[in-house]
Design brief:
The chain contains eleven helices and 13 strands. It is α/β, with parallel strands linked by helices. The strands form three sheets. A seven-stranded mixed sheet has the order 2-8-7-6-5-3-4, with helices on both faces. It has a four-stranded antiparallel sheet with strand order 9-10-13-12, with helices on one face. A two-stranded parallel sheet has the order 1-11. The longest helix has 24 residues.
Length: 355
């Protein structure tokens, strides 16, 4: 611990991202990356940006990209915010929209995206974790209490379980006193976005990522959609922190992704199909698999330690995610790979569970 650090830095407990092994010849199924790369049209759009214009700052408002996103979701540009990955977007959301200690604690699930409590520590936000049900569902009735804001992923992570749009709208009808943030990093793999509800509920903010369904984890592009009032607040935070969050290449890649709808739908359906196949094969091996609508499965075996399974798989060159958190320490989170990756995983698990 450095003597140059402030007390604030000394007390921080940073988020721990999924491992990015710096070794070759592995099957990497631990960080929910898309096994299918970006579209050829997107790659060409990025190549076209590799010119002398890189000496120039990018447009700070990224208006062309905001217009494309707004058109896609039938919104206006004043209802769209863009940032350097959805984690940066969420950081601004926590700091600018969810820091209301005087109203009560921020509420989010006890089993959820583990960056949420880190943001709360970073911005000194009072929070309360709301337990999932015994079958790992989010019970929205439990959130009907005084609060300084509400946030939850849909589908939830790491469980992959989805709340239907009707349930979300019913909740919003009686929860309009504070900001409700729905983190939709995985929504394209099986659910309906809540963006269609934005015009009806001024306190709703929907956050999405281009890392998962659009195969752009390496580009770091995220966005939020909500009322013009909420977006204006985020813009104030952004312009007090980093006026140029997205570079020329990121903007070009994001626009090209939205314009190549056929490729997006094709690869999205491939992931969904492989998730269904992987789930069925895991169940045949005796695994319990939670009903996922994401690009990963959350699974446990009744007679095998999850930690030991992860270790054995790693010895065979396959990396999956194990959380040592109470209630879920028996589970593995496994990214849905392509057909060959999933088959390799199943063959490895067959050999392990049959020992």
């Amino acid at each position: 611990m450095s003597s140059y650090w402030s007390d604030f830095v000394k007390d921080l407990e940073p988020y721990s991202p999924g491992e990015q092994p710096d070794i070759g010849n592995i099957t990497k199924l631990n960080t929910n990356e898309n096994p299918y790369g970006p579209s050829p049209a997107l790659l060409e759009a990025v190549r076209n940006q590799l010119n002398d214009d890189l000496r120039l700052y990018p447009p700070p408002a990224a208006l062309r990209l905001k217009q494309v996103i707004a058109d896609y979701y039938q919104l206006s540009t004043e209802q769209v915010f863009v940032g350097n990955g959805s984690d940066e977007v969420l950081a601004h959301v926590f700091n600018g929209l969810l820091n209301h200690r005087e109203k009560g604690p921020l509420l989010f699930p006890d089993i959820s995206y583990s960056f949420y409590p880190v943001y709360c520590q970073l911005y000194d936000i009072s929070f309360e974790k709301i337990p999932l049900s015994e079958d790992f569902c989010i019970g929205l009735e439990d959130y009907k209490r005084p609060n300084g804001g509400i946030i939850f992923p849909n589908p939830n992570a790491p469980t992959g379980m989805l709340l239907g749009l009707e349930a979300i709208e019913n909740f919003l009808q009686c929860s309009q006193q504070s900001v409700v943030v729905i983190d939709e990093a995985y929504i394209d793999f099986g659910g309906q976005t809540a963006a269609s509800l934005i015009d009806q509920y001024s306190n709703l903010l929907v956050v999405q990522s281009m890392s998962k369904s659009r195969s752009l984890a390496g580009m770091r592009i995220g966005y939020a959609m909500g009322s013009a009032e909420l977006i204006a607040g985020l813009e104030r935070i952004k312009n007090s922190f980093n006026s140029y969050p997205l570079g020329h290449l990121q903007i070009a890649a994001a626009i090209a992704s939205f314009e190549d709808e056929d490729y997006f739908q094709k690869t999205r359906q491939l992931v969904i199909s492989e998730r269904q196949r992987l789930t069925a094969q895991l169940e045949r091996l005796g695994f319990e698999v939670l009903p996922s609508q994401a690009n990963f499965v959350f699974t446990r075996h009744p007679h095998q330690s999850a930690e030991e399974l992860a270790s054995r798989l790693r010895e065979l060159g396959i990396v999956v995610r194990h959380f040592k958190q109470p209630r879920i320490q028996d589970f593995l989170r496994i990214t849905v790979g392509d057909e060959s990756q999933n088959s390799l995983l199943i063959d490895a698990l067959k050999s392990i569970v049959s020992d």
